[in-house]
Amino acid sequence: MNLNSKIIRIVLAVIVVLAGMMAYYASNGKTINGLQNAAGTAAKPAQEATSTVSGGISNLFENVFGESATQRENDKLRREINELRKKQVSYDRILQENEEYKKMLNIKDRVADYDIINAMVIGRDGVENAYSFTIDKGTGDGIEVDDVVISSDGVVGVVVETGAGFSKVSTILNSSISAGCYVGENLDVGIAGGSYDLSKSDMCAVQYLPKTSRAKEGDLVSTSGYGTVFPSGLIIGKVKEVTVDVSGNYLTAWTEPAADIENVKIVFVLKNKV
Domain residues of the chain, as ranges? Predict the structure, then answer.
C-alpha cells in the first residue's frame, strides 16, 4: 500500500468519526464548541500524519535537490580551478620561453650563420633522462639529421633521427656524440664526449689533451669548430677535474656541461643558412 492510499484512508476514517459525533451532539443538544473540540481531537492523528509526511517530503526534496545544487557548485569550482591551473602553466611556459630567448641574444653573434628553430622537449629516454630526448619539431619544420641542438646556456647535442613532427636528439653526454673543443685560456685542443657511466652523473670528458696542457678546474670548454658538426665558440661546460689518462700520454678534463641537459625543456636547433 502506497503513502497516498494510507492518507486517504485516514481522512475517510476521520470524516466518518466526525459525522457520527455530529449526529450524537445534535441528538443530545451539545454546543458547537464541544463539537469543535472533539473534531480537533479526532483530527489530530490525521494532522500529525500529514505533517510528518509533508515534513518528510520537504526534507527529502531539501536533501536531494540541495545536494544536487551543492554538487553542481563544486563541479563548477573544480572546472574553474582546472582552467586557472592551465592558464598558470601557459603563463609559466611563456615566462620561461621569454627568459630563454633573452639569454639567446647573448650568443646570437656566435650563431649568426645559422637559422634558429626553437623546440620543446616532449619525451626523454636513456640513462636518468640525460642521454637522449625527443623534441616537437621535425622534417616538416626543416630539421635534419646532424643539426646541432643548443640551449641558451650551451651545447646540448645533435639530431640523430627525424620524423614529420618530431626529432630525436642525442646529447653531449651520449657516447655516440663528440665535439672538437678548446680548454681554458691557452685554448688547448681536445675532444669532448660522453659515456654511459659519465651520463649517470651528468658529466662529459675532454680527452686527448696534451700533457703540457695547463687545463685546470673552472676552465671553460668551448667548441673549436674542427672535425665535427658543431660550430665554433659554443660553450660546452666547465672543467671539474683534470687527470692523466690510462695511457699516461694525455690528460683528461672531466667537465660539467653548461646546459642543464637532464632538465632542459626549451632548446634551439641550428640550421645552416642557405
Answer: 1-112, 115-274
* Cell numbers at 94, concatenated: 611563456
Cα of first residue to Cα of last residue in the chain, in angstroms, is 90
Give the number of C-alpha atoms closer than 13 A to the C-alpha of residue 19, restricted to the C-beta side: 6
* Pair 169, 132: CB distance under 8 Å: yes
Q: Could you read off the pLDDT of 16-73 as tens digits, one per residue?
A: 555 565 555 555 554 444 444 444 454 455 455 445 545 555 554 555 555 677 787 7
CB atoms within 10 A of CB 245: 14
CA distance to 107, 153, 259, 265, per residue, from 100 (Å)? 11, 9, 12, 10
Q: What is the DSSP string of 80-124?
A: HHHHHHHHHHHHHHHHHHHHHHHHHGGGGGGGTTEEEEEEEEEEE
User: How far out from the chain centre does Cα 101 lie?
Assistant: 22
Q: How far is CA 272 from CA 44, 115, 229, in A?
A: 97, 6, 11
CATH topology assigned to domain 115-274: Thrombin, subunit H (2.40.10)
H-state helical runs in the chain: 3-28, 32-104, 196-199
